[in-house]
């Protein structure tokens, strides 16, 4: 007869019963473990994340087809904050696109915006 070593809960040290890969004796212990290991996020980071997600949501709502042209004021009226984006891409043709995750835009010479969606790889 092979005896498997007993495993204990990572939080309360109770003996685990059940699956071999089990790490916690209950949902409560699992939640306590993950909360205590969670890095506290500063209010500044929380606010920036909230703004980025709002910007992405606005771009996505105004660009249902994946490519749309509209005025800069339309985006501004919806509450878009032009100070925040996740990344920028400059094309070989010299066009500069600003993105909030996969949703982005390019400002044209006529102060219009070309909204685009980055392809998922």
Any overview of this molecule?
It is a single chain. The chain has 121 residues and is of the alpha+beta class. The protein has a domain at 43-117. The chain has three helices and five strands. The chain has helices spanning 27-37, 43-62, 72-77, and strands at residues 67-71, 87-90, 96-100, 103-107, 112-117. It has a five-stranded antiparallel beta sheet with strand order 1-5-4-3-2. A hairpin with a 5-residue loop joins strand 2 (87-90) and strand 3 (96-100). The mean pLDDT is 87.
Q: Radius of gyration over alpha carbons?
A: 24 Å
What is the total tally of β strands?
5
Please trace the helix and strand order, writing H or E for each element.
Answer: HHEHEEEE
- Which descriptor suits the 3D outline? elongated
Number of helices: 3
Strand order of the largest sheet: 1-5-4-3-2
Distance between the termini: 50 Å
Beta fraction: 15-25%
Short description:
By secondary structure, the protein is of the alpha+beta class.
Keywords:
121 residues, alpha+beta, 5-stranded antiparallel β-sheet, elongated
Question: What topology does this entry show?
Answer:
Elements: H1 27-37, H2 43-62, E1 67-71, H3 72-77, E2 87-90, E3 96-100, E4 103-107, E5 112-117
